[in-house]
Description:
The chain is mainly alpha-helical. 53% of the residues lie in helices and 0% in strands. The chain is built from four helices and no strands. It is elongated, with a radius of gyration of 19 Å. The mean pLDDT is 81.
Amino acid sequence: MSGVELPRFSKGEKPRFFETEGLDELYGVVTSLAAELAAAYERIDTLERVMAVEGLIAPGQVEKFQRDSSARAERADWHHEYVDRVFSPLRHRGSGLDKHPDDGTTTAD
């Protein structure tokens, strides 16, 4: 890399494709969700196939798994970051949805 740091957000207004207020952001959220879901599905499918071929898991073992408190805490942190990514088109628009529902903090906190 050249060592040049690029800005995280573009300057100026984003192009608008729909007249209805908020529709561009909604499409951004849906597109983000679709991309996240596709990537997660592919990883899960690959992992389960590799583990089955290697004899590391039995059918139904994933569904029966019980998380401990540490795993639950890690998953809660992941969910927080996930919501930030998925709803970023709305948050960057300044719609007031930049507050986290669980603790009231903003992404800048």
